[in-house]
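Progress note, sequence design subtask.
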């Protein structure tokens, strides 16, 4: 799965499933700045604002213009990496 965080407060997380060729598309996204992540497995951690801030440096910053299209290449974030980021926050990956 790939995820794009639309808001630092944990709201506005948009999801797109990865296709067999490794591509994903998320449509109808309002213009703005986003962080995109490719994740091995979805977890509710992605809705936690503290976790999002912790993971921000592992994502790719995306500026989407009005009526724009953006292509990004994303490194895969594993469940182990998510757990390692969650522990210092007192959270557990589910």
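Output:
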């Amino acid at each position: 799965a790939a995820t794009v965080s639309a808001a630092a407060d944990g709201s506005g997380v948009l999801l797109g499933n990865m296709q067999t060729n490794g591509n994903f598309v998320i449509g109808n996204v309002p213009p703005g700045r986003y962080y995109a992540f490719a994740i091995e497995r979805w977890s509710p951690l992605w809705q936690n604002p503290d976790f999002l801030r912790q993971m921000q440096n592992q994502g790719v910053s995306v500026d989407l213009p009005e009526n724009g299209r953006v292509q990004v290449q994303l490194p895969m974030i594993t469940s182990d990496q998510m757990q390692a980021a969650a522990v210092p926050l007192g959270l557990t990956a589910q």
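The first strand starts at residue 2 and ends at 5. Work on this subtask will continue into the next period as scheduled.
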